[in-house]
Amino acid sequence: MAAESEPEEAININSPCINLEKLPHLTDYLPTLKTYTNPLQHNPFFHPSYGFYVTPTDIVLRHIVYDISSSSSSASPHLAYLRAGPRKQIFFDPTDSTRAAIVNCGGLCPGLNTVIRELVVGLWDLYGLRHIYGIQAGYRGFYSTDMAPLQLNPKMVHGWHKTGGTLLQTSRGGFHLQNIVDAIQRYGFNQVYIIGGDGTMRGAVKIFDEIRRRKLNIGVVGIPKTVDNDVGIIDRSFGFQTAVEMAQQAINAAHVEAESAVNGIGLVKLMGRSTGHIALHATLSSRDVDCCLIPENKFYLEGKGGLFEFLEHRLKENGHAVVVVAEGAGQDMIPRTDAQKEEKDESGNPVFLDVGSWLKSELKKWWDRDHPNELFTVKYIDPTYMIRAVPANATDNLYCTLLAHSAIHGIMAGYTGFVCGPINGNYAYIPLEEVAQAKNEVNTRDHKWAWVRSVTSQPDFEKT
To answer: Where is this chain primarily localised (predicted)?
Structure first.
């Protein structure tokens, strides 16, 4: 039964200690929307008990670690976000005209098919939606005449979570704001689920802003995807755990190759354009890595405290070494032509050169110069596309399911222009614009990087 809307924002959290982040809601610009009883209330499998529904006063704190001896820890209020989960009242009639669109953009990432599958199954089974569509080939699929939306149902997506890649297909670029929003209106979509990384999220912000400007009854939610784990605010992005696990195979192979040669070096390039999270976590997980090079920690080759000096000592000590390098590390050291300096990919990002091939070449030049007629081998392994294309592991599959269900509950409750994700282990709703602007870089002053240094004994690369 429909009732007059009473958005959750009508309830204020009056506490000088809490600064609750305002989350956009459809009633901000459509105040007369009707509400409906959540169909979960009558679901024969759930039987919602006390505490099942999330209330407007359920929040998640952004930071949970404080130094209580510091005066600043108590001076300012704690930033908080609304907790994700089902609400008693929803703002879409699932049995009538609600039509959902799902799109994924950018590169591949383990778990894409799991998120899509769980969105379809969750919308269908939890809320009774029967009009669910997949947009093919990224943002351009909204308005391309060659790719009509693909109608989805649980039977069609049944085994998708066991498959790598994305069965909806994806692409970079293709963002044309007016064409996309016009197509959303034309198809009658009133829920849009956008899966992608930081570039995709910046596009989602523009879509949300345009929908709000037109005062359309359309909810927009972003689901953060990037194998590099560089999306800010949330604990991690999906696919990251699988990537670290798969990286172990490449590191193990490099270790075997290096150990089996005289003065052997195994060189592994891992994903990480602007952040080194995969390289860092793979190094800590493996313990066979002698040096980890990431974009956040500049390094140099020649001279005291440089990479060559360190590797020479390690080769004399152990007879072999393993080096892990993130793809974004050392890019400022690689010679480029003027054309290469200006080159951009389809998403507008600078095109990176292959730091692994460059480093392999520099290592060989160094050895030939300083150790002529001595045996030396560099085995270079780049597992990038093998890692991106695999199905998600158990941890990421579970994570993708919870992300999808959090997104569904939020958008059904009338929230829009938000991203769902875990903060300190609890799922929350975060404004899209915040996530699009935030970065998750490796903090080389925290304990994790100190652990890397202690495991590898590598230099700090700080010239004195």
So the answer is: cytoplasm
Backbone angles phi, psi at 435, to 5 degrees: -70, -40
Q: Which residue has the higher pLDDT, 172 or 193?
A: 193
Q: What is the mean pLDDT of residues 225-248?
A: 94
Q: How many CA atoms lie within 13 A of 263 on its CB side?
A: 15
* Cβ atoms of 61 and 94 closer than 8 Å: no
The H-or-E segment that residue 125 falls in is helix 112-127
Q: Which of 453, 441, 401 is nearest to 422 (CA)?
A: 401
366 CB neighbour count, 10 Å cutoff: 18
Look-up of token digits 């080159």: 343
Task: Determine contact, residues 321/258, Cβ cutoff 8 Å.
Answer: yes
Q: Distance (Å, rounded) from C-alpha 295 to C-alpha 444? A: 10
Task: Reduce the DSSP state of residue 134 to 3 states and report it.
Answer: strand
Residue 340: its pLDDT value, please? 82
Q: Which residues are documented as binding site for Mg(2+)?
A: 198
Give the Cα separation of 45 and 174 in Å (integer).
42
Count how many Cα atoms sit within 13 Å of the Cα of residue 350 in the half-sphere of its side chain.
Answer: 15
CB under 8 Å to 235, separation ≥6 — which residues? 421, 422, 423, 424, 425
- 10: CB partners within 8 A, 6+ apart: none
| Percent of the chain's residues with pLDDT above 90 | 81
User: What is the pLDDT at residue 6?
Assistant: 46
Burial 191-221 (b: 16+ CB within 10 A, else e): bbbbbbbbbbbbbbbebbbbbbeeebbbbbb
**Residue 15 CB neighbours (<10 A):** 13
Are 78 and 19 in contact by the 8 Å Cβ rule? The answer is yes
Cβ atoms within 10 A of the Cβ of 248, count? Answer: 13
Per residue in 60-70, pLDDT (tens digit) is: 999 988 877 76
Residues annotated as catalytic are 228
Q: How far apart are CA 156 and CA 78, in angstroms?
A: 45
Binding site residue list: 107, 172-173, 197-200, 226-228, 271-273, 327, 385-388
Structure tokens at 28: 């901000």
Whole-number CA gyration radius for the chain: 25
Is residue 82 classed exposed, middle or buried when 0-12, 13-18 and 19+ CB atoms within 10 A define those classes? Answer: buried
H-state helical runs in 172-260: 177-187, 198-213, 240-259
**What pTM was computed for the model?**
0.92
SS3 345: coil
pLDDT of residue 188: 96
